[in-house]
Design brief:
This protein is an alpha/beta fold and 428 residues long. Among the domains are: 133 residues, Leucine Dehydrogenase, chain A, domain 1 (Rossmann fold); 162 residues, 3-Layer(aba) Sandwich (Rossmann fold). It has 14 helices and twelve strands. A hairpin with a 6-residue loop joins strand 7 and strand 8. The relative contact order is 0.14. It binds nicotinamide-adenine-dinucleotide. Nicotinamide-adenine-dinucleotide binds next to helix 7 and strand 7.
């Protein structure tokens, strides 16, 4: 019998169910938090440069806002579905709660491949999305931030459309904007840096010095590039990076025994994190199949590309040397693969925690935008380090005390905070 297709929302719900069980949540709370509070589906007509019109689906899902206004990514990806967006929104509710920032969880997507659009078409699709979404978004309602294939420029076009519709400046309505247009220094680096801060803390616990550690990273976009950069600064040698080729079609692994340098490889990378094979070879990278990143003889693996990447079928390729898997991406590890990793003593730092640096810095960006007063980069990244380290220690303590995996511990902390907020408001 063929395996059922991967459904990230079913995975998110079953992870949540475990936490609800561990916390002994009452039936009404269990049911309420299991589904989003609100879902919006749009059809966005896009006029192409040749004058023809194509219609793209768009989604915004607002899972829960008991702890504060909704917050969450917006991706431009051809494989987006309502269930992917539901999962991302639910995970965001838990992420904001784990790092204890006063926001809820949302997510959105436009079903489109930006590789196939001109800049003018991409601008029109961004404005088209906002034309439909603007009435349900806002600094006090729900604030989008960039996710897959979304750039600061796209966020600025959407902000401009939002402000035109609402007839006022509202820089806190979106985050991930360009610096100088309400963007925060440090936001680009924040998710990847947050992942690496978690790895730093894990290596301390394990007793492995960063200068002796090797890593392999999947994804060289917003998250992956900056993870490689901070690994390098901390003395962790990244020997392999996987990404799509420059046309965004096939995944490849780019390996360099002497260590990947983020700036060097970024020179061969397009705006969507795709790497030009010939250019990388010219820079001395060995080009291997896309799944080779997982089979590297390293201490740390960082999936920072997509969901559903480490599965029952490929987990056997993970080498015995691996001690830590840090999920920069959302939902990259299937539960069966996680069990296999746990049985081998591998520490999996879950997406709720390892991928929370971006939303934490987006929160800082919102605060700065609302005040119209912007902090220096070191101040932003210093505050990020404080938040991420505190969250890591809290999750690790809970895991140890309650004999839970890091994922279950992160869920227990997050779900109890959100359930507590719903109760305190008198909703349940
Ligand atoms: P991005 O579009 O900037 O980069 C994605 C990278 O993954 C690119 O290098 C791309 O080539 C690569 N990739 C895509 N499909 C691949 C495949 N099949 N095999 C190998 N590589 C592949 O996206 P991003 O913003 O870096 O997001 C990456 C992941 O991190 C996603 O799961 C996203 O939801 C999550 N995330 C992003 C942020 C953020 O701040 N951007 C925050 C939290 C979580």
């Amino acid at each position: 019998m063929a395996a059922a297709p991967f459904n990230p929302f079913a995975m998110a719900q079953s992870q949540y169910d475990r936490a609800a069980e561990l916390l002994g949540l009452d039936a009404a709370t269990r049911e309420f938090l299991r589904d989003p509070m609100r879902e919006i589906v749009f059809s966005i007509p896009l006029r192409l440069d040749d004058g023809s019109v194509r219609v793209h689906k768009g989604f915004r899902v607002q899972h829960n806002d008991a702890r504060g206004p909704g917050k969450g990514g917006l991706r431009f990806h051809p494989l987006s579905t309502i269930d992917v967006v539901r999962a991302l929104a639910m995970w965001m509710t838990w992420k904001t709660a784990v790092v204890d920032i006063p926001l809820g969880g949302s997510a959105g997507a436009v079903v489109v491949d930006p590789h196939n659009l001109s800049a003018a078409e991409l601008e029109r699709v961004c404005r088209g999305f906002m034309r439909f979404a603007a009435r349900d978004l806002g600094p006090d309602v729900d604030v989008p931030e960039p996710d897959l294939m979304a750039s600061p420029q796209q966020m600025l076009w959407m902000l401009d459309e939002y402000e035109a519709i609402h007839r006022r400046r509202a820089p806190g309505a979106l985050t991930g904007k360009p610096v100088g247009f309400g963007g925060s220094l440090g936001r680009r680096e924040a998710t990847g840096f947050g992942t690496v801060i978690c790895v730093r803390e894990a290596l301390k616990e394990i007793g492995l010095a960063t200068r002796n550690a090797l890593a392999s990273v999947q994804g060289f976009g917003n998250v992956g590039q900056h993870a490689v950069r901070l690994f390098d600064e901390l003395g962790v040698k990244v020997i392999a990076v996987a990404a799509l080729d420059a046309r965004g079609r096939s995944p490849l692994t780019f390996r360099k025994e002497s260590g990947v340098k983020a700036d060097e490889l970024a020179a061969a990378t397009d705006g969507f994190g795709g790497i030009d094979r010939q250019e990388a070879e010219r820079l001395g990278y060995e080009v291997l199949p896309g799944d080779s990143w997982l089979a590297q003889d390293v201490d740390v693996l960082v999936p920072a590309a997509l969901e559903n990447q480490i599965t029952a079928e490929n987990v056997g390729a993970v080498q015995p040397r691996v001690r830590v898997v840090a999920e920069g991406a959302n939902g990259p590890t299937r539960p069966e693969a996680e069990q296999a990793l746990a049985a081998r003593g591998v520490l999996v730092i879950p997406d709720l925690l390892a991928g929370a640096g971006g939303v934490t810095c987006s929160y800082f960006e919102q605060v700065q935008s609302n005040m119209n007063y912007f902090w220096e980069r070191d101040e932003v990244l210093g505050k990020l380090d404080v938040k991420m380290t505190a969250a890591y220690i809290a999750v690790s303590d809970t895991a140890r005390k309650r004999k839970l995996s890091m994922r279950d511990a992160a869920y227990v902390i997050a779900v109890s905070r959100v359930a507590g907020a719903c109760k305190a408001r008198g909703w349940l």
